[in-house]
């Protein structure tokens, strides 16, 4: 079996487990322990804050250790143990400890899977493979949701535990059976593959001081501020305007996930042809349109159009962000550190989104609330457009400089990146990649 097939299986089986029980946690605690919504919300918020604090350090751990297969297995094991520990838990402290263990595993999964992907396929093939990863990830979410939905009638709400536990075990099996020789640590970070030296990793200050990475982080935080709580607010709107709001919300989730699968595949193929920034622009432009549809449409059937746009925006973001972060940090040895830190910053926007949307609804009503959620996306769009313009300008100046010096084009190519840091995505690391050479094609068999 090809290593890329193992990547597909890993992403299918980890798609639904990254957040532990996720939305099923509240249902389980309400039914089994008679927890109030406020109590569930308190523990969920604490777990969310803890996950955000772990995101950057876990990314740094992946960079430093260089053993993503082991870390994926450990992460899935933590999710499995934390989920099973929830079965007998009833008090706040045991529930928090169990869910925190599962959430920590989910936080570790993203940078570990990204590092494994880069180490197997290399930078050149990463955009397309990331699109496939995300497509299989969404397929896994759909399969788990379908299994839980069908099994609830026979096994009750505890079916969520067994579906999640089974997927965690299968993810571990897919990981440990991935051919070890197909992964190359130097390929994963952009170092010359046939070299014997151990290049020094860039300092953490180079990540913090990377202006493009900071602007991207702010843009994504604003995007998630608008996007994170929109479906929840829409479900609350349906309670007031339509019958069977729970069923409609479930349908919207399924529609969004179904749309994300082809969008992720398409975005992966477009990343090289159209540029990464163009994908980010498209995602940020779609969100205000979704907000407007949610604001002015009351018919649940027609609101499906808004969730189709949700699938488009989320599907693009899931592919584009890791690819852009790799562009901005390639060769520094800090790619997963940057990705983890970026996830923490954008997670703050997502965590505040439900509160922001609820506050807007109380002050402005349903229409005003959705328009307020769309407003941060417009600011995010402006930031991405500005960053794209400045990057293109710098790229043109560099190209002109090469022509004046009698050099043509990019000159030498690196391991999946060009000597022009703006070549593929309109962005690149502050440190160049001129020292890299074309590496051998990665093994995937």
Please explain how this structure is put together.
The protein is mostly helical. 75% of the residues lie in helices and 0% in strands. The protein has helices at residues 3-14, 24-33, 37-65, 68-86, 92-121, 126-155, 159-176, 185-189, 204-208, 211-227, 230-241, 245-274, 276-296, 304-329, 335-404. The longest helix has 70 residues, at 335-404.
Describe the structure concisely for a colleague.
With about 450 residues, the protein is mainly alpha-helical. Helix content is about 75%, strand content about 0%. The protein has helices spanning about 5-15, 25-35, 35-65, 70-85, 90-120, 125-155, 160-175, 185-190, 205-210, 210-225, 230-240, 245-275, 275-295, 305-330, 335-405.
Q: Roughly what percent helix?
A: over 70%
The number of helical segments is 15
What ranges have pLDDT less than 50 throughout 5 or more consecutive residues?
A: 389-445
Topology pattern, helix = H, strand = E: HHHHHHHHHHHHHHH
Counting helices, strands and paired strands, the structural category is mainly alpha
Shape: globular
Strand content: under 5%
N- and C-termini, Cα separation: 7 Å
Mean pLDDT: 79
Tell me how many strands there are: 0
